[in-house]
Design a protein that fits this description.
mainly alpha; AA_transpt_TM
Length: 458
């Protein structure tokens, strides 16, 4: 009886695949998605709208929202294979690609996915330092006047954020991050609401809507093309979360089936983020017109009330603490799992030590995890210090990962999963969708790389 009871307890604490039981719900899933999506990208959308103009700007935001939803719909059915409800679980994006598309494409996917996650970590270090510096500058402008020379460096803030992430990176895995994602989601709502409210207030105060159909004019047609391309890259960075979608889906409990919950969460989260994106982009452009800053809350289009600007930037910092972990935890999990399989008897890799600090719960520490995660955080911080260019970095990252990770792999896996034959109606529609997105990605990538090179040389 005792043995039977212990077996029942073990079964109750394990899921159908023998892993720790999943407890994620629709609401925690939405929180994870919002934490991943509403990040540093939202702050550049007013600038992107200003480059594209009053017609192309909002239309582009809506088109990317639709593309993101289609991508998430296709990818959520790939969590289990071969059947989307009863098949074996694919714990990561790479697992799904390996099962459906083979080993070679898995390597390509892994390279792009983890490069994108690493790059997002770099972007979050840059954004956080910009927001922390903006707090100091806002206080300076309030005391000395708006024309005062209030210039501060980024390096110390990047190092401080890196130190915080060294500590946060010791969170074991995605399943232990629900509280941090919920906090980050609340912060993202807060600063997005402040940004759109300040933009709306300025439009009402000025009594007119600034901007034009063609967007910000430039000296030459070539320069306008580069700016439009970079704006598309910034929007592409702001939306997709496909590279961590399956990792989020792996936290969900069932029933109902994981793909049903994921589709509902994606629909809700994308609707919410699109509303905020349109408001931030459009109200920001309407408020500043041709003088729209690259970063809505730290570019100092707004100076007062300075305390509200400070609060918004604090919210950004707190959100990006969680956002950095959302994109870093899958990298940690992959490398640590690979190392454990490669060195199964290595004590440095496998041994855990229990540490008990006063007034805190016991904590299990692994020296390999400590060293690897600390080195990872240090490297993202170092790269951010070399390339501290907010809009240009976002554009390059968005263009690099948009088509392959958000479009190509989900479409190809969906063909295999649902056994869709070549030249059928659904095949033609999805392939056309993929080709159009590829062309947009190529345009965005060229313009964003040009912008990054120009910023580095200037």
């Amino acid at each position: 009886m005792a043995v039977q009871h212990s077996l029942e307890l073990a079964n109750d604490s394990c899921d159908d695949d023998g892993r720790q039981i999943r407890t994620g719900t629709l609401w925690t899933c939405i929180a994870h998605i919002i934490t991943a999506v509403i990040g540093s990208g939202v702050l550049s959308l007013a600038w992107s709208t200003a480059q594209l103009g009053w017609i192309a700007g909002p239309v582009s935001l809506l088109c990317f929202a639709i593309v993101t939803y289609v991508s998430s719909f296709l990818l959520s059915d790939c969590y289990r294979s071969p059947h989307p409800v009863t098949g074996a679980r694919n714990y990561t994006y790479m697992d799904a690609v390996g099962v459906n598309l083979g080993r070679k494409q898995t390597w390509v996917c892994g390279l792009l996915q983890y490069l994108s996650m690493y790059g997002t970590g770099v972007a979050y270090v840059i954004t956080t330092s910009v927001s922390m510096r903006a707090i100091q500058e806002a206080n300076c402008y309030h005391k000395k006047g708006h024309k005062a020379l209030c210039a501060y460096g980024d390096t110390s803030y990047m190092l401080l954020f890196g130190a915080i992430q060294v500590v946060c990176s010791q969170i074991p895995d995605f399943h232990n991050m629900e509280w941090l994602s919920i906090l980050a989601a609340v912060m993202s709502f807060s600063y997005s609401s402040i940004g759109l409210s300040l933009g709306l207030a300025k439009v009402i105060g000025d009594g007119r809507i600034k901007g034009s159909i063609g967007g910000i004019p430039t000296a030459t047609t070539a320069k306008k093309v580069w700016k439009v391309s970079q704006a598309l890259g910034d929007i592409a960075f702001a939306y997709p979360y496909s590279l961590i979608l399956l990792e989020i889906q792996d936290t969900l409990k069932s029933p109902p089936s994981e793909n049903q919950t994921m589709k509902k969460a994606s629909r809700a989260a994308i609707f919410i983020t699109t509303f905020f994106y349109l408001c931030c982009g459009c109200f920001g452009y309407a408020a500043f017109g041709n003088l729209t800053p690259g970063n809505l809350l730290s570019g100092f289009g707004f100076y007062e009330p300075y305390w509200l600007i400070d609060f918004a930037n604090v919210c950004i910092v707190l959100h990006l603490v969680g956002g950095y972990q959302i994109y870093s935890q899958p990298v940690f999990a992959f490398f640590e799992r690979w190392s454990a399989e490669k060195f199964p008897s290595n004590g440095f890799v496998k041994t855990f030590y229990t540490i008990k600090l006063p007034m805190l719960p016991a904590f299990r520490m692994n020296l390999f995890r400590l060293c690897f995660r600390t080195a990872y955080v240090a490297s993202t911080t170092g790269v951010a210090m070399v390339f501290p260019y907010f809009n240009q970095v976002l554009g390059v990252l968005g263009a690099l990962n948009f088509w392959p990770l958000a479009i190509y792999f989900p479409v190809e896996m969906y063909f295999v999963q649902m056994k869709i034959g070549a030249w059928t109606r659904k095949w033609i529609v999805l392939q056309s969708f993929s080709i159009v997105c590829l062309l947009v990605t190529m345009v965005a990538l060229v313009g964003s790389v040009e912008g990054l090179i120009s910023a580095k040389l200037s």
